[in-house]
Write a structure and sequence with these properties.
Elements: H1 2-21, H2 54-58, H3 63-70, H4 73-91, H5 104-112, H6 142-151
Length: 185
């Protein structure tokens, strides 16, 4: 009887150890590169956000926003420019030209194609007064630039109360080493 209890406890212990060490959890990223990844299926783009706040401000919620988010960038301008222009004129009925010298039609045509342009020969910036949409640096105040271009007029000085969100820095400074961002809390 004593031997059977010992055998049963040994078997139970062995099963417990094996069970605890052999699970199907693949969340530990142990892909060695030898396995074939399965990319079959249908994928749908869920969000378009190359320029922050643009689709939030210029596309209404609901189906049009879903359509915009799934749109192919090359088709966005022709499909959404008039919608963007209507919203721009509703936001700023006095809009004539922006600080880039763009009419409402030119500006909203640029905005409606929501892609992040990147220049390989110029400074990477959203807008620094000289370079425009040549990329986006971490420290670029994208919302202030967008507000300035929507409400600031041709000199960028109209409607000063509307050309800044008054958030002039991050709560934590960018690091000097990659990935430069603060760790999540």
């Amino acid at each position: 009887m004593k031997t059977n209890k010992l055998k049963m406890m040994t078997i139970a212990l062995a099963v417990a150890l094996v069970s605890a060490n052999c699970d199907n959890n693949d969340d530990n990223n142990t892909n060695t590169g030898n396995e074939m990844m399965d990319f079959s299926g249908t994928y749908v783009q869920q969000d378009q956000m190359a320029r922050p706040a643009i689709n939030t401000v210029f596309i209404a919620s609901g189906q049009p926003k879903d359509d915009f988010n799934a749109a192919i960038p090359s088709a966005m301008g022709s499909k959404y420019q008039s919608i963007f222009q209507s919203r721009l004129m509703a936001l700023n009925p006095a809009y004539d030209m922006n600080a880039l010298g763009q009419s409402a039609a030119a500006f909203t045509g640029l905005l409606a194609t929501d892609v992040l342009n990147v220049s390989t020969t110029k400074k990477t910036t959203f807008f620094d007064g000289t370079n425009v949409l040549t990329g986006r640096a971490l420290a670029d105040d994208v919302i202030d630039v967008e507000l300035l271009l929507i409400f600031g007029g041709s000199a960028g000085t109209s409607n000063p109360q509307l050309t800044s969100d008054h958030v002039d820095a991050n709560d934590i400074a960018f690091g000097t080493n990659f990935p430069y961002l603060a760790t999540a809390w």
